[in-house]
Amino acid sequence: MVPFTYYFNLAIPDEKMRRMAMEEFAANGAEHLAIADGLLKAIAGDPKLYLKLPQEMHDAGLSFVDAHAPFGAETDPAVPVPEYRRQMLARLKFNLQIVSDFGVDSCCVHIDTALYPGYTLEQHLDAARRTLDEVLPLAEKLGVTICLENIFKPLNTVDDVLTLIREFPSPALGACFDAGHANIMEHGMTDPACIAYDRFGKVGREVPWEHDALDRMLPHIVNCHLHDNHAALDEHDLPGTGTVDWPSVIAGICKAPRLKNMQSEVLPGRHGIPVKTLVDTFRHLLNEYAG
Amino acid sequence: MIPFSYCYDWGVLDEKARQVAMAEFAANGAKHIVLTSNLLEKISGEPKLYLKLRQEARNAGLSFVDSHMPFNFETDIALPVEEWRPQMLARMKFNLELIHDYGVDTCCFHICSRYFKEFPMARHLDAARRSLEELLPVAEQLGVVICLENIFQPCNTVDDVLTLIGEFPSPWLGACFDVGHAHLMEHGMHVPDCIVPSHWEGVCEVPWEHDVLDRMLPHIVNCHLHDNNADLDTHTIPGLGSIKWPEVIAKLRTAPRLKNMQSEVIPLRRNGLPIRAVVESFNRILE
């Protein structure tokens, strides 16, 4: 069984509160936490936090497994604006170094979060290719797999993810299967409020609804984001509160040949979910369906 | 004309206050501000601020000239603790990229902000050498000069600065002359309660210095201008301490490698100095 990790933003300025959050996870049986994008940003800006965190995690009996690179218009691999690319590349490389220093070997990266006006989708995708060209050698050297995530947005479809992975055959490039996002792209077409309509509509595109996302991504899945929704909004809620078919998802992911870890990407803060409920839910899910 | 740049306590300001302070500098005739260590830490951690800050400076009619690498034991080139060095080096390379991207071509480095008494001095300086070996090619590629600063602490003396510069003859390595620190090391021995001896306790006798500016002159690329009374590192405005400014400025202007000059007055360190007072004090001494 691969390690199971929890997404929780530990970028809490107060050390006692941060330690308490860690202790809470540990007291409920969690063993690993993911390095969230917010935490990576905090570490990048705070050298002291960089040195303190491993000890705090050790004291709580936890370790870091999996990571999420910061995402946004300034930090996505597909940034096509030449004057923004240098800092994006420097930032991505620095983040990979931090991830590796923390003993983590997988890092989810969004291909693109914000489309820049005046640039075509192909230009964005080309920019992502140039980024991978430059960053993959470092990822290989550090032993960190960059995992491209499927999202309900242009440039982040399963096709986009698989295209890039096929173009750059490398052990340092794989896929991050997001179960919630796949649910939206597979079942959202019947709900006019589905977020995918908005995201693709903004660029004048029909939504390229997907099917069999998990099966198609399976050979390349290295990590995953597990959270639930009703196929309309990106709720990041607890499994069982939405319409994701958890028995199939869990059983399916466990067959992925490159799988390194599994991650809860439920956002407890957004929904007021106690850590106990969160951990118990996933424990039950894995006991039942992980095989 | 050598550009003159101003340091400020940007770290305590929110976005609006930061913009007002930039406007205040511009209204008083300043043209350049420093990419301070605090700003570098902030833009390292906040990608949005990275793009915003540059625009804020442009909107105020200011540009960034000179920079200061974040300093502390986690981020000094002389860090002798091996397990902490990869992050230090990665962080510095990342910061050099950001500095270059902001159009800045000089960056002040502390050799050693925290002296680890469990390691000998030679071990610290050796660590600094290894760091420079790794950082100088990056600095060269980016066109940023690493400027080592004289400080009143072990491993940061003029001798240390000149030794390292002598060992790495490169246009991408130079000196940052800190006039306030030089004043402490040249005159502190006569001043009761001088801060300097406390920094050398348990290490060795204070190696008081003389002729600091003359000795550093051939290598000075940037400088930190601020005043004190040779007792505390007050970073106050010229005229409020005992530095002989006409001599310092006249000599500094003859430094063959000088790229810029910097006010390193820290206005909020004491009771708060108006930006106008800071700018006017430098206008006076630069005349």
Features:
heterodimer; A: 291 residues; alpha/beta; TIM Barrel; eight-stranded parallel β-barrel; 12 helices; B: 287 residues; eight-stranded parallel beta sheet; 11 helices; 13% strand
Any idea of the CATH topology of chain B? TIM Barrel
CATH homology superfamily name of chain B: Divalent-metal-dependent TIM barrel enzymes
Quickly count the domains of chain A. Answer: 1
Helix and strand composition category of chain A: alpha/beta
Multimer state: heterodimer
Beta content of chain B comes to: 5-15%
Instruction: List low-pLDDT spans of chain A.
Output: none
Helicity level of chain B: 40-55%
Q: What gross morphology of chain B would you assign?
A: globular
Task: Please identify, by name, the CATH architecture of chain A.
Answer: Alpha-Beta Barrel
In total, the number of strands of chain A is 8
Strand order of the largest sheet of chain A: 1-2-3-4-5-6-7-8
Q: Can you describe this structure?
A:
The complex is a heterodimer of chains A (291) and B (287). Chain A has 291 residues and is an alpha/beta fold. Chain A has one domain (4-289): TIM Barrel (Alpha-Beta Barrel). Helix content of chain A is 47%, strand content 13%. Chain A has an eight-stranded parallel beta barrel, surrounded by six helices. In chain A, strand 5 (145-149), helix 6 (158-167) and strand 6 form a beta-alpha-beta unit. The termini of chain A are close together. Chain B has 287 residues and is α/β, with parallel strands linked by helices. Chain B has a single domain, classed as Alpha-Beta Barrel (TIM Barrel). Chain B has eleven helices and eight strands. Chain B has helices at residues 15-27, 37-45, 47-59, 85-101, 121-142, 158-167, 179-187, 196-200, 212-216, 245-252, 275-286, and strands spanning 4-6, 32-35, 63-67, 106-109, 145-149, 173-178, 220-225, 261-263. In chain B, helix 2 (37-45) packs across helix 3 and helix 4 (85-101) packs parallel to helix 5. The two termini of chain B are 13 Å apart. The model of chain B has no long low-confidence stretch (mean pLDDT 95). Classes of the chains: A alpha/beta (291), B alpha/beta (287). The interface between A and B is medium-sized, with 24 and 25 residues.
